[in-house]
Amino acid sequence: MMKLSFRQRLFIYFAVLFTVFTVGIAIIEQSQEKDYKTEALKEKLDVYTNIIQAAISGNSLKPEIAVASVKQMLPSDLRITLIDAKGNVHYDNKVDDYSQMDNHLNREEIQLALQNGTGSYIRESESTHQPYLYYAKKTGDTYIRVALQYNIQLQRFLKADNLFLYLLIALFAISLWVIHRITRQFGTSIQQLRDFALQPSAHSTNFSSDELGEIGKKISENYQQAEEGKKNLQLEKQKLLQHISISEEGICFISAAHQVEFHNGLFMHHLNQITDTPQSNPAVILQDEIFSSLHQFLSSPQENYFETQIKKQGKIFSLRASVFEDRSFEVILTDITQHEKTKQLKQEMTGNIAHELRTPITSIRAYLETILEQSLPEDKQQHFITQAYQQTLTLSEMIKDMGLLAKMEEAPNTFALENVKLIPLLEQLKTDVGDSLKQKNIQWHWQLPDNITIRGNASLLNSIFRNLIENSIRYAGESIEINLSVFNEDPEFYYFSFYDTGMGIPNESQLNRLFERFYRVQEGRTRDTGGSGLGLSIVKNAIQFHRGSITAKNRTNGGLEFIFTLHK
Q1: Contact yes or no for 457/417 (Cβ under 8 A)
Q2: How many domains does the chain have?
Q3: For residue 359, what pLDDT band results from cuts at 50, 70 and 90?
Q4: Computed from CA positions of residues 344, 345, 350, 356, in that sequence, does the dihedral angle turn out positive or negative?
């Protein structure tokens, strides 16, 4: 069986609806017009009965004589019958021997006249065997009945006028043609949308100009954009997978249902170095007891990031996990053995330097012994004492700073964390360095959000801003401005800018080394200004402790700027 199209079904629905509507109107109109003509004929017959009634009432002669007196006022083919109250026929102008006629009391028109005063009915006469339209009227004890033969002429008179029917048929045909045009246009648009939906790449986007066409064009545009986005996404995915495959970190992506979606070869390599038995399934990381800390984090993650270290087979591995919005996550395994060795060497170097700092103390001791054992002029003695004191302060500050660095690197977990409000901290710091700022005519301003709060260590946060401000006081020059501001923030970080309007760093190649321990832009500058040479190194490590990062750059209008982040 052939399946009808949407346009054909729509046309049939409307055609059937209009057909039923038209036929209904035609039937009602024909019936009403026939009833109207019948009522008009009944009124005429009622007039005839009134004439006959008047003739009978005003004439004492026989009924036939009374009827004959008004014959010229009545149609020649009008049948007249007079019936008494009991149904006996007293006169009938169409029947010669009407005395032999049956009782008419049960005739339909007589019964209607008995009930309503008048009655009409179409039936075949039992006397003449001809069909008649009967009309009876009760007047006193007599029924006056008139009838017209129900012939072709009378049928035509009662038949409804066909002009309205012809007009209705014409309107019906025009309506079907309009429906045909509308459904064809509508069906074409639907067919275009259907073809495009089934095979979007195989059909053109030349839609019609109606509303459906506009919808089709918009759908086509969205489809093209989606396809372009899909291609770009696929390309980016390929780039990402290629990058992950050659990455120096072992990476594994796991769905929210703990199903492995992707992993690179280095992940399996590190995994087999950590586990006791060779593994081919990366999902073992979710089962092996050596990764229990990861399992505990994934069971009820309080944050979206997790990091720990695993020591196995003489190596140190970094284990990191990041949870995404859909509760899927990635696990990263990195061999940090060499990094940790380097870090250890740096720590040992720091300890050795701290140990070697005791050598200058010998010189200080010599200054003091000379003063005590020799007789020197008072001004010379004062000079030696001042020099020894300044060296002592510098060495004490250096030892303290190196101890802080070592603690941040070796035992970061010993630093207590709390919610630290920065503005009160900065106000206290400004008070502490107020004399130095005033001495060099330096203005310090900040623009920070109200109630800005960092989850961190108050002492380390104080070290960050103290060392930055002291660095500008020592090296930027006089009559400058210092500014601290938050230029951006996201759900995890505040982005800070700290700059001065001083001299900056003439050689930009030295910018990347500012955070190295004991690095000097100019030889002897730390000694001249009294700094320990570790201030910016402390700043960098303290920021990293707060999961942030820092960079330095020269400003276009002069001065040095530090851009850094602090985790909220």
Answers
A1: yes
A2: 5
A3: low
A4: positive
Is residue 445 located within the same domain as residue 556?
yes
Count Cβ atoms below 10 Å from residue 376 Cβ, excluding itself. 13
What span, in angstroms and rounded, lies between the C-alpha atoms of 129 and 134? 14
| Tens of pLDDT, residues 182-234 | 777 777 777 777 777 777 766 556 777 767 777 777 877 787 788 888 888 88
- Calculate Rg over the CA atoms of the chain: 57
DSSP string computed for 286-351: GT-GGGHHHHHHHHS-SSSEEEEEEEETTEEEEEEEEE-TTS-EEEEEEE-HHHHHHHHHHHHHHH
For residue 68, is it within any domain?
yes
Whether residue 330 is found in the same domain as residue 366:
no
Q: Are residues 395 and 530 in the same domain?
A: no
Q: What is the DSSP string of 82-126?
A: EEETTS-EEEETT-TTGGGSPP-TTSHHHHHHHHHSEEEEEEE-T
Question: From the CB of residue 105, how many other CB atoms can be counted at a distance below 10 Å?
Answer: 15
d(CA 285, CA 306): 15
Query: How far is the C-alpha of 390 from the C-alpha of 397, rounded, in Å?
Result: 11
Q: Give the type of residue at 93.
A: N
pLDDT digits (tens, 9 = 90+) for 376-388: 888 888 888 888 8
Checking if the pLDDT of 267 tops 70, the result is yes
| 319 touches 291 (CB < 8 A) | yes
Same domain, yes or no: 470 and 453: yes
Q: How far is CA 545 from CA 333, 416, 548, 567, in A?
A: 21, 12, 7, 10
* Residues 275, 232 within the same domain: no
**Token representation of residue 254:** 């796991």
Residue-by-residue DSSP string for 221-251: HHHHHHHHHHHHHHHHHHHHHHHHHT-SSEE
CATH of the domain at 142: 3.30.450.20
Farthest-apart Cα atoms in the chain, separation: 188
d(CA 85, CA 54): 18
419 and 561 within one domain? yes
Residue with tokens 């938050």: 486
List the structure tokens of 23: 């036929």
Q: Are 299 and 321 in contact (CB under 8 A)?
A: no
Q: How far is CA 171 from the centre of its chain?
A: 50
Domain of residue 254 covers 247-335
| Alpha-carbon span 489 to 468, nearest angstrom | 21
Residue 49 within a domain: yes
Judge residue 70's burial from the number of C-beta atoms within 10 Å of its C-beta, 0-12 exposed, 13-18 middle, 19 or more buried.
middle
2 lies in a domain?
no
Q: Closest Cα partner for 268 from 256, 283, 255? A: 283
Has this prediction a pTM greater than 0.90?
no
Say whether both 150 and 24 belong to one domain. Answer: yes
Question: For residue 445, what are its two tokens?
Answer: 């301003």
Question: Within this chain, do residues 176 and 203 fall inside the same structural domain, yes or no?
Answer: yes
Distance CA 130, CA 149 (A): 7
Gap between the Cα atoms of 563 and 486, Å rounded: 10
